[in-house]
Amino acid sequence: MKKVLMVVLMAAACFAVFANGSQEKSSAAPSPVAAPAQSVAKIAPKYLEDNPQAITGTVRFWTAFGGSAGMNDMIAAFNKIYPNVKVELNTYSNTSDGNVGVDTALMAGGKVDVLQTFGQNNTSRRANNGLFLDITDKLAKDGLDVKKEWGSDKYVFDGKFYSVPMGGLAYYVAINMDDWRKAGYTDLPKEWTWDEYLEASKKMTVGEGDKKIYGGSDYHSINYFTYPVRQVKGYDAYYKDDGTSNFDDPLMLEALKREIKAEVTDKIWFPLTVYRSDSIQSQVVYCNHQVASVIIPNVIRFIRDTKKYPVTWQTGFAPYPVEKKGQKNYLAPVSVFSHAAITHDCKDMDAAWAFFKFFSTYGAIYLVPAGHMPTWSGTDLKNAVNVIFGSEENAAKLVDIESMNRVVFNYSGDAYIETTSKGISDIEKIVNQYTLDAHAGKTTPEEALKHMKAEADQAIKDAQ
Amino acid sequence: MKAHKDTATAYAFLLPTLVIFFTLVIFPVLFSLFLSFTKWNFLSGWNGIKLIGLDNYAKLRTDIKFNQAVVNTFVYAVTVVPISIICALILAYALNSKVFMKNFLRLCFFIPYISSMVALAAVFKYLFREINGPINLILENVFRLKTLPQWFTDDHLSKIPIITLLVWTSIGYELIIYMASLQNISKSLYEAADIDGASAATKFWKITVPLISPTTFYLVIVRLIGTFKLFTAVNIMTYGTAARANTSMVVRIYGDAFGSYKFGYASAESWVLFIIILAITLIQFWGQKKWVHY
């Protein structure tokens, strides 16, 4: 019955699916030769299926990353071990339209076997509606402890595992080292406060008009003013423990005021209103040298692409700023952002399970070229620089390797997690609307947050 | 007997079309009416449909964002339709006489109409960029404006780029229709007016305007319906800006359905839109008796 409904909906929603012009399909054909014994030997037995060469079938793998962003290499590495499994890569756009396409494909059935899904909202929505396979028993059978392997066992739905949190993001400040030195700085900070970052932004701000280089910038997403709450609280920044929204947290107000002051009053950060009205993104203004530094989670993905972004400077990395020195920084280590899951109507289960395990463990290192981070505890990050840049020599031209290893590949300590997403799509719209109103001077930050609190509480109530 | 057989044969030929019509038109329309009385997230399947009576419609009355979208859509309708029709009529009138490169000019005006709205909206979004946008560069360097307009984030200005684009793309079609209509007016009427000593303005108001009034009526109806269904231009030009001052009803409906997965609520919004369009069209048909001359 569900399928009949979806056939009709597929037709109705075809605009959403076909409008997604960025979908990319490619197929990595299985190698006809047997897997090299050495590759198999490197993998610990619990991550490997018995007799890999006997496993056959096709895996339809959907992710937001293109083949050239590491996925072709990942599939090639998988096929060295499982030569008789064909992996079909389908790259979708991780936007609201792109995710409607994914949901429609999942509901229609027979199109997706393994999915990399991004964000708590998309993941929980799919798991809660039975679109993912319950993998609790399969994980237990293979001796895979989710907390031990991927750092967190909080991502359960009805007490069961439907996905593993295998991908993450590191939040940091990317700094143009030429501008940093011109401003009189030498060493990159190992810990710094917002006041110190604002001071550095002020010193690095130069020029006027269209020649102006802003010293700093928050990320282009509108909700980034709420990230200091993530840094301090460590979990569920939008929600209080009593289930209501958290927009009356004093830190929300302080962070919003700080952002507006830096952008509108002091003009030392690139303005959010321009990011939004001109549809430009942080990596673009950083690579175009319109800013000297930027808070960003994935700049590596862009600076490694020297053809598209031919930057002439070295990028250094400083940790996400804190409110006061010595404060626990939940945004310093890599935080979970993406999950791998097997779909409810997966066709070749053995092949899909083998691929799922490989992608979530040894294959997760190939997320790094896309600017995302593996969360698997067994990841060999010594090789990450080579995976991203080809060699240490190439890397040194573009990045400060020491600070990158210390800040971007940081897995020490507790990271921010999200365990709920009630009414999240409405909350995001509410945050976007009132944050921009406050930035544009249509309302005060206090009034904006008052509206956010009232409307987000209602959105949570409606979602329940 | 033969009549029955002919009827059966006719229905057999009609069947494929009827199946498509009922599946893709009648069923979705009736299903959306049913959904407007429910709360439904499509991922939950049939079992997830929850009847809630008139709650969605009651909520719409107090939904500030939807009401703002309704107001915005009316603003687009009452600006785009008259401006584009007046511009098209003036251009058609001018091009109807002997004009140098008449066909080329007609083609130039028609090209925006047949171009992709997605591409045009992207171009207009670029033209109205705040930093290094061509329009702001002209305002800064030619007109020496110190404070440059924020076209997409200033509530007072944010409709202007969209209205400009819509007028520009509408003119081509309206121009062609008007030119065809103007060529159908008998020259003898103008010759008779000349003999009576009528001025050019008199001929325009007393002969041209009444005789093309059925065309004007057709264009007003078609354009109003089109403007109420406005989606692509607004969706592209306001993408990522959390627009409220310049969003349209259909963009709002799309966001609620495919962004928030509130299919019941979005269906109720769609039916409100349908009722508005129907009401306006009926008023137009009632009013045309007073100004349209057949």
CATH architecture of the largest domain in chain A: 3-Layer(aba) Sandwich
The fold-level CATH name of the largest domain in chain A is D-Maltodextrin-Binding Protein, domain 2
Total count of helical runs of at least 4 residues of chain A: 21
Helix fraction bin of chain A: 40-55%
Count of individual beta strands of chain A: 10
Oligomeric state, counting identical vs distinct chains: heterodimer
**CATH C-level category of chain B:** Mainly Alpha
**Biggest β-sheet strands, sense, barrel of chain A:** 7 strands, mixed
CATH superfamily (homologous) name of the largest domain in chain A: Periplasmic binding protein-like II
Tally of contiguous helical segments of chain B: 13
For the secondary structure, the number of strands of chain B is 2
List low-confidence stretches of chain A: 5-24, 26-40
Please provide the ordered H/E string of secondary-structure elements of chain B: HEEHHHHHHHHHHHH
Question: What does the radius of gyration of chain B come to?
Answer: 24 Å
Average pLDDT level of chain A: 88
